[in-house]
Amino acid sequence: MDSHIYGVSKKTLFLFTLLCLSVSSISALPHQNKAGNSTGTGQMINSNSVLVALLDSHYTELAELVEKALLLQTLEEAVGKHNITIFAPRNEALERQLDPEFKRFLLEPGNLKSLQTLLLFHIIPQRVGSNDWPGHKSNPSRHTTLCNDHQHLITQNSGKKLVGSAELTRPDDVIRPDGVIHGIERLLIPQSVQEDFNRRRNLRSISAVLPEGAPEVDPRTHRLKKPEPPVRAGSPPVLPIYDAMSPGPSLAPAPAPGPGGPHHHFDGESQVKDFIQTLLLYGGYNEMADILVNLTSLATEMGRLVSEGYVLTVLAPNDEAMAKLTTDQLSEPGAPEQIIYYHIIPEYQTEESMYNAVRRFGKIGYDTLRLPHKVVAQEADGSVKFGSGDGSAYLFDPDIYTDGRISVQGIDGVLFPEVEKESTSVKKSVSPVKVATTNPRRGKLMEVACRMLGTLGQDSRFTTCQ
């Protein structure tokens, strides 16, 4: 028969103590993070993407509609999965040849689905170059668009290539690793959008596209005006600058001229010499010019690249930033060249084009001449910020030199790749660390249990209470 202490049996007391020990051991376990270790970092889009090229191209009306339709996220996901082909109508087709009432219908907030369907009808989730068109003796090829509709590619006997009912006017106008953009003469309207528009007006016989009007007569010659031929990319503008200016801020600057090829149509040495003299006259970038000319042979190499048709964007750190470089960072063989290579982007970018890109996509990764490292740009404080953390730099002096082949942008810091930052931080953290040992702290329930056992004179039986 169990003995009792003040009306409580030893077995009951033992069970109560065991329960207290189990609760304290469970509470001492580290808490697990229910949220997991995954972070919701957004995807970074490459600066050489076809989406960035669309926003930076002369198809400004189409790019503006894509932005209003909130399709950038959808197109980013499509580009991440496969190549795409965009059939881009020229600006005149969206400005003058479109019924104003139909355009108002598309831009109304309640008709966002129709606008998205219309734009996705111009995009095929695969790469289709101009050489992939069927011959005039072959049957039309059928391709599924991003809106789950179909486009037919046709080649007529005369050699004209058609996309549905629109003629292909600028084949392979923009080519990027993840897609291609073809210029077409008119807007393609799917049947579902046409029916939505007709249902809205309660008329089924109204066409969304204005019919072709009577031929225009030139008042000077009293002859019929001939349609102007399409202007190729890189050619001088047809209209004077005052007629070509838009009433508001433009979406992005005009693209740079195309490469000149191996025939050396460009005088790269003179252009590099001109931009280095501009750096010296601008003031505050003497160290950068000294490294290009005296400390390395990068000026000669850049001139050769420009002569062969390449375009370059130089992120030039100012003298205050260059003065922070230590002797160890410059004394290693090839260190100055590697530093400058990381500040040269093999694209023609201006302050406006870079800011528009980071404003729309958040983060942009620009390729550099120091492969495979990229410079990450993002929007910060109304400007463009390169890098991250303490090694970041802001766009300090925009468009110091821009001639269509070389663009120089002044920044207020020297950039280094992320790998070098991690290696330097590991070296700094190698110092010996003293490990402080602390006595394990007993839980509150254990302390209460030991006190109760102490009052009963039974605390000496348990080692945890000693």
Automatic annotation (TrEMBL):
Keywords in alphabetical order: Glycoprotein, Proteoglycan, Repeat, Secreted, Signal
Protein family (similarity comment): Belongs to the fasciclin-like AGP family.
Protein name per the record: FAS1 domain-containing protein
Superkingdom field: Eukaryota
Primary location recorded for the protein, binned into one broad class: secreted
Keyword Signal among record annotations: yes
Region (Disordered) location: 212-266
Known function: May be a cell surface adhesion protein.
Gene3D superfamilies in UniProt: FAS1 domain
Localization of this protein: Secreted
Segments of skewed composition (Pro residues): 250-260
Residues annotated as domain FAS1: 46-188, 272-400
Ranges of biased composition (kind: Basic and acidic residues): 217-229
SMART domains: FAS1
Record's signal peptide: 1-28
PROSITE patterns per UniProt: FAS1
Matching Pfam families: Fasciclin (PF02469)
InterPro entries: FAS1_dom_sf, FAS1_domain, FLA15/16/17/18
Gene Ontology annotations for the cellular component aspect, listed alphabetically: extracellular region
Keyword Repeat annotated: yes
